[in-house]
Design brief:
This protein is of the alpha+beta class and 87 residues long. It contains 2 helices and 5 strands; from the N terminus they run βααββββ. A 5-stranded mixed sheet has the order 1-5-4-3-2.
C-alpha cells in the first residue's frame, strides 16, 4: 500500500521540533503499520493508530484508507493512559 502525508501532517514534523519534540517519519510509519491500539470508531471513517513513543508519551496517527492508499492526516503525541491503557 502506498502511504501519503497531507500538507498538515508534513507540517507537524516542523511544528513539534519547534517545541523540542522530534518525531521521526519512521515512527509515524511504524505506528500505522504495527500499532499497539487501533480506534476505528471514534472518528469514523478515519482510523487512529497508537503506539508507545517514549516513557511518557504515546504517538497517535490519524489516517484514512481509500483505493489502497493510506493518507496520514495528522499525528500527535499524547500522555500515556489518556486514550487507552498501554504497557
Amino acid at each position: 500500500m502506498k502511504i501519503l502525508f497531507t500538507k498538515h501532517a508534513e507540517g507537524n514534523f516542523k511544528r513539534f521540533r519547534k517545541y523540542k519534540l522530534v518525531i521521526p517519519r519512521k515512527s509515524v510509519l511504524k505506528t500505522v503499520k504495527n500499532p499497539e491500539n487501533v480506534d476505528k470508531i471514534s472518528d469514523k471513517p478515519k482510523i487512529i493508530a497508537s503506539k508507545i513513543f517514549n516513557k511518557r508519551l504515546v504517538l497517535r496517527v490519524v489516517y484514512k484508507i481509500e483505493h489502497d492508499i493510506i493518507t496520514i492526516i495528522t499525528f500527535y503525541p499524547s500522555r500515556k493512559g489518556r486514550y487507552y491503557e498501554s504497557n
